[in-house]
Specification:
This protein is an alpha+beta fold and 297 residues long. It has 3 domains: 5-97, no CATH class; 106-200, no CATH class; 210-296, no CATH class. It is built from 12 helices and 12 strands. Bound molecules: zinc ion.
Length: 297
């Protein structure tokens, strides 16, 4: 079978014209629908609601998306419109629903931030990276090398979002990685992957060294800790100037949490803080967001 393809079941005793419209509506070649709704509306002189009701009320259509990477059976999805079918074709699943439920036994009410380790492990065992194009594999390697969503976002994804993001989503659907979002704002917090994946692909994680100019900086969460003894937050840094800590001077050490799981670390002498306070007198205190922006600019 050549995927993707569609199979339509018609109601009994339909008008020939109706069958013709439905057949054309679902005609697909090379992943593209040959007759757009607009084309069909003009051709048959009908409105969009009429077209929708003709398709929905007289037939049932199944999309054969692809072969399940696990059991090799076709992945079948019922569809009622070109747009839903298109979105499935553009963002395909790789497992049939049976295999998905087998690989992901986590009940729905489970803490959804906990990684789907079972599925991620399976993806490694089944060597799903073999299903990637060379370009997609290169992106996966970058994700692992960076091992830090912020830097990946800044140095890779942002440089060509339209190109990189669909690949990242594909890696997620294949369970090679897991895009983790913060439940409140749905913002991406990190891209999780199992340490075994890096080992299997023989990738050395890049130790990107960040240049800082003061003892006031952001430290990302250390992802993929392999041992309990490893720190929770970690980043290699170097300074663009000497930073001297003097004997007998009083310093304030500050640490605060950021919504993305990273922390901000600061160490400043009382004198420096006072001077800073004086110079910013009259202006509103900075929000954490502003401080982070400054640090990450
Ligand atoms: Zn399957």
């Amino acid at each position: 079978m050549k995927y993707p393809c569609l199979e339509t079941e018609f109601n009994e005793n339909l008008d020939k014209q109706i069958v013709k419209i439905i057949n054309q509506y679902w005609k697909i070649e090379n992943r593209t629908f040959l007759y757009s709704p607009t084309k069909l509306r003009n051709k048959f002189g009908i409105t969009q609601p009429k077209l929708n009701s003709i398709v929905k009320n007289n037939s049932k259509t199944k999309l054969f998306l692809d072969e399940c990477v696990e059991c090799k059976k076709p992945i079948i999805i019922p569809v009622t419109s070109q747009s839903t079918a298109k979105s499935k074709i553009e963002n395909p699943y790789f497992h049939c629903s049976d295999c998905r439920s087998k690989l992901d036994p986590t009940p729905l009410n489970d803490d959804f931030t906990s990684p789907k380790n079972h599925r991620l492990k399976y993806a490694i065992k089944a060597r799903y990276w073999n299903k990637l194009t060379r370009e997609e594999l290169a992106v996966l390697k970058k994700v692992i090398e960076f091992d830090n969503y912020r830097s990946l976002q800044k140095k890779v994804i942002q440089t060509n979002f339209e190109h990189y993001w669909p690949i990242i989503e594909k890696l997620d659907r294949l369970s090679l990685i897991e895009i983790q979002r913060d439940p409140l704002h749905n913002r991406i917090q990190k891209i999780y992957f199992l340490p075994e994946l890096a080992n299997e692909l023989e990738i050395n994680r890049k130790n990107i060294v960040f240049t800082e100019s003061s003892l006031n900086f952001n430290v990302p969460q250390k992802l993929n800790r392999t041992k309990e003894t490893q720190p929770n937050f970690l980043k290699p840094i170097k300074f663009d100037r000497d930073i001297v800590l003097k004997k007998g001077i009083e310093y304030i050490c500050s640490i605060w949490n950021n919504p993305d799981g990273s922390i901000n670390f600061g160490l400043k002498s009382i004198d420096e803080l006072k001077a800073q306070k004086d110079s910013t007198k009259g202006s509103d205190p900075k929000t954490i967001g502003e401080v982070i922006k400054e640090i990450w600019k």
